[in-house]
Amino acid sequence: MNMQTKSTPRENGGAGHAVVVGAGIIGAATALNLQRRGFEVTIIDALPPGEGASFGNAGIAARCAIVPVPVPGILKKLPAMLLDPMGPLSMDFLHVARNAKWFIDYLRHGRASEVERIAAELFKLTDGSIDEHLELARDTGGAPWVTESDYLYIYPKRSDFEAEAFAWDIRRRHGIEHVEVGQAELREMEPDLAANFTFAVRLPQHGFALDPAKLVKGLVETFQKRGGRLLQAKAQAFEFGAEGAHSLITEAGTIAFDRLVIAAGAWSTTLTKQLGARIPLISERGYHIQFRDSGIRQNHPMMVTSGKYVATPMADGLRLAGIVEFKPMSAPPDPRLTERLKRHARLLFPSAELENAETWMGHRPSLPDSLPVIGAVPGHPNVFLAFGHQHIGLSTGPRTGRLVAQLVAGEQVNEDLSAFRVDRF
Ligand SMILES: Cc1cc2nc3c(=O)[nH]c(=O)nc-3n(C[C@H](O)[C@H](O)[C@H](O)COP(=O)(O)OP(=O)(O)OC[C@H]3O[C@@H](n4cnc5c(N)ncnc54)[C@H](O)[C@@H]3O)c2cc1C
């Protein structure tokens, strides 16, 4: 099929034909925002919408998630984390050695001044996350799948919270309000929680997706109802003219575009390297296990800091999501890591029924400075990138989609986006 039927509404007074590669939360939010600006929009994804990282995440719209993983002292903690049979980290050392430059850069960004800078940049994307979600989903099929809620960070003891003073101080200075919750109040809030969690902090102005995949599918369904096209095909290469790339070659034919957005998550660089952009993207693999009939009551989503995973009361059951595994993208999932999450579930909710479980592994798209790329590709002014949202793409998707659509439409953007520049590496 040759799809070079470039109907260019620009010729008819419209904004032009915009193609978005990737139907995850970033691509879906971008496409809806472009559509609102008068573009004729085609989304291309090799899979049905919301089947990448956006399928299985913990679903938190986390305004608070501005402190990156590498922080001062991380290097010293690495060996213990790796040896801990309940730890949050797993590494294939050959893979790490092959990507040594990425890892050295990643750890280098863990010094205090860099963490401060990164947090300030990430806050531009996370602030107002739940409001942005509600606004994006309003009047769409995504609306039933997103809800406001307080978010809890739970700890065995108050001293465990105090040990994270560095991160909480950064959050506090960005105006991220947190309320301390003592043992008795925590019992009241979460009666099924194990008794050895005696302290928590409660974060207002948060929320979560009751089913992140259905949220994305609902957004894309409405995009289609509003006249958007969804093409299920793999984007493979480009056709170039004097002014740069103008058409995308896909398994289903060639598609001409006026503007292109690459929002293909952890797979994005297979396309961007053909444009001469050097972007050090890797996958931080993550896992979930979801229990359909756990029988427990969970009133709030929780970050369980002792295991560095999140427990979310999804529409279809209790989901524990977490683990960072550095391994090639093509390697099969490691069942020992979902087993680890299952053991955590037992410690978190001792009375839970854990038989009916589904497991999942997905790819967080991660750059060494923990910031995404958002902007035009040098030499290809009509091609824009929106990927690399690592652990917080669900939180930052709606804002990113709006910012990218503004850039694509040539509108004035009030935020300084220079930290997300494509050519910063
Ligand atoms: C265990 C875990 C828990 C998480 N928890 C949270 C959380 O609570 N809150 C939060 O904010 N974030 C969380 N995240 C991170 C979040 O899931 C990601 O940052 C986010 O989903 C990335 O979205 P995306 O649209 O960039 O990528 P994806 O959802 O991966 O979408 C990319 C899409 O591009 C398509 N694609 C790729 N290449 C091509 C091609 N060549 N042609 C056509 N299509 C292509 C893929 O099929 C895919 O559908 C978590 C991640 C994991 C793994």
Quick recap of the structure?
With 425 residues, the protein is an alpha/beta fold.
Number of discrete helical segments: 14
State Rg: 21 Å
What share of residues is helical?
25-40%
Would you tell me the structural class of the helices and strands? alpha/beta
* Assembly state (oligomeric): single chain
CATH class assignment of the domain at 72-110 and 148-204 and 282-366 = Alpha Beta
CATH architecture of the domain at 72-110 and 148-204 and 282-366: 2-Layer Sandwich
How would you describe this structure to a colleague?
- With 425 residues, this protein is of the alpha/beta class.
- The chain has a domain at 72-110 and 148-204 and 282-366: D-Amino Acid Oxidase, subunit A, domain 2 (D-Amino Acid Oxidase, Chain A, domain 2, 2-Layer Sandwich).
- It has helices at 25-36, 53-56, 74-83, 93-98, 100-108, 112-126, 129-137, 158-162, 165-173, 183-189, 212-225, 269-272, 335-348, 393-408; strands at 17-21, 40-45, 60-61, 89-91, 146-155, 179-181, 199-209, 229-232, 235-241, 244-250, 253-256, 259-262, 282-291, 302-304, 309-314, 317-326, 357-366, 373-377, 380-387.
- The strands form 3 sheets. Strands 3, 4, 5, 6, 7, 13, 14, 15, 16 and 17 form a 10-stranded mixed beta sheet that branches.
- α1 links the parallel β1 (17-21) and β2.
- α1 (25-36) packs parallel to α11 (212-225) and α1 (25-36) runs parallel beside α14.
- The radius of gyration is 21 Å and the shape is globular.
- Bound molecules: flavin-adenine dinucleotide.
- Flavin-adenine dinucleotide is lined by residues 21-27, 44-47, 51-54, 57-60, 62, 234-235, 263-265, 267, 270, 286-288, 310, 321-322, 362, 364-365, 387, 389-395.
